[in-house]
Amino acid sequence: MFKVSVLALFVLLTGLGAALAADLKGMISAVSEATRTITVDGVAIVVPPGISMNTFALGQNVSVTYTTANGVNTMAPVTKAAK
Questions:
Q1: Which CATH class is domain 21-80?
Q2: What is the C-alpha separation between 43 and 12, in angstroms, rounded?
Q3: What backbone phi and psi angles, to 5 degrees, belong to 17?
């Protein structure tokens, strides 16, 4: 019974972690077209296909929503932050 409870708790916790999103506002400090990543306030975020890398520039202020799965931060739709 204990093993089943531990397994159920593990499945519940890992499933919840995958569904959570984080919001980040800050300045872009790096853009890599080779890896399709941007870095905002020290957080590397993968830009998914369908979002042009030309959208991003060094020094640009952005508001980013992303999810983390298997240690990889993946971006949701992004908007430019108001000045």
A1: mainly beta
A2: 26
A3: -65, -35
